[in-house]
Amino acid sequence: MSQTPQPDRVKYAFIFPAFLLVLTITLFPLIYALVVSFQTIRIVPPVPPKFVGFDNYAEILASARFWGSIQVTAVIVFVSVALQYVLGFALALTLHHNVPGASLYRVSFLLPMFLAPVSVALIARMLFHPVLGPVNEFFTLFGLENLPFLTSPSFAIATLITVEIWQWTPFVVLLMLAGLQGLPSEVFEAARVDNISAWRRFRDLTFPMLLPLSVAVVFIRVIEGFKIIDTVFVLTGGGPGTSTETLTLFAYNEGFKKFNIGMTSALSFLFLIVVILFGTLYLAAAQRMIRRYQ
C-alpha cells in the first residue's frame, strides 16, 4: 500500500523568513505612519508626541493650499498623460509601418525616458529661462517679447506639462509599439483585400484590439504622474507662490521644511486615498469600455 508523500517542509523553512522580512519592511512603515498621522509630532522645534485624533486630517481638508495642490496635480497629470497617449500611439503607428529610418527613430525616441527627471528639469530650466533661455531667444527673432515660462502660473504649468510629455511619451511608444507588433497580421490583410480604409482599420480593428493595453498604459502613467515631485521641485519649486505645488511637493514642504511629521503623515494617507479612489473609478470605467468593444 503506497503512502501519500509528505509535503516538503524544508522549502517553507527557507521561504518563511524571507516572507516575514518583506512583510515587516512593508507593513511597519505603513502602520507607523498611520499612527503618527493621529499625533502632533515636530522635529524642529522638538515637540513631544500628542494624540490629536483626526485634527490633522481636518486641518488639511480645511486648507485651501491642499485643494489647490490637488487641482495643480490633476491638471498636470491628466493633460500630460492624455497628450502622451495620443502622441505615443501616433508615433508607434508610424514606426510600426516601417518608415525610412525607423530603427534610428526607435532608439532616439526612447532616450528621454532613460534620463533622470532631475537632469531633465535642470536642462528645461535653462531652456525656458525667462531672460537667457534659448527658447525666448528664438522668439525674439520674430519680434516677440520674452515669455514668462517659469514666472507666470499658467506658463509654468504649461512648461511642466511640456517637460512631462517630452520625457514620458517614449514609454507609451515602447508599449504601444510592442502591442502593435503582437497583433495578428491576417486580420489586417483581409481588411486590405476588402478595400477597408486605413481609418476604419484603425477604428474597428487596431484600437479595439489594443484597448486593454491602452487602459494599462494610461493607468500606469497616471499613477506615476501623481507622484511627480522632482521635476516640479527643480524647475519651479512650486512657484510662483504655490501655483505649481503638487501634492507630493506639498507633503515634502510640510515634512522637510516645517518638520511637521504628524501633518505630513496625514497628508500622505489622504494622497493614498485620492489615488485609490481614482484607480477604482478608472478601472471600473475601463472595464465597461472594454466590454462594449468586445
TrEMBL record:
Recorded family membership: Belongs to the binding-protein-dependent transport system permease family.
Primary subcellular site in the record, as a coarse category: membrane
TM ranges: 12-35, 70-95, 107-128, 165-184, 205-223, 266-285
SUPFAM superfamilies linked: MetI-like (SSF161098)
A Pfam family annotated for this UniProt entry: BPD_transp_1
Name recorded for this polypeptide: Multiple sugar transport system permease protein
Record-level GO cellular component terms: plasma membrane
Classification via PANTHER family: BLR7065 PROTEIN, SPERMIDINE_PUTRESCINE TRANSPORT SYSTEM PERMEASE PROTEIN
Membrane topology value: Multi-pass membrane protein
Annotated GO biological process: transmembrane transport
PROSITE patterns according to UniProt: ABC_TM1
Localization in the cell: Cell membrane
Cited InterPro entries: MetI-like (IPR000515), MetI-like_sf (IPR035906)
UniProt KW keywords: Cell membrane, Membrane, Sugar transport, Transmembrane, Transmembrane helix, Transport
Residues annotated as domain ABC transmembrane type-1: 70-282
Gene3D superfamilies membership: MetI-like
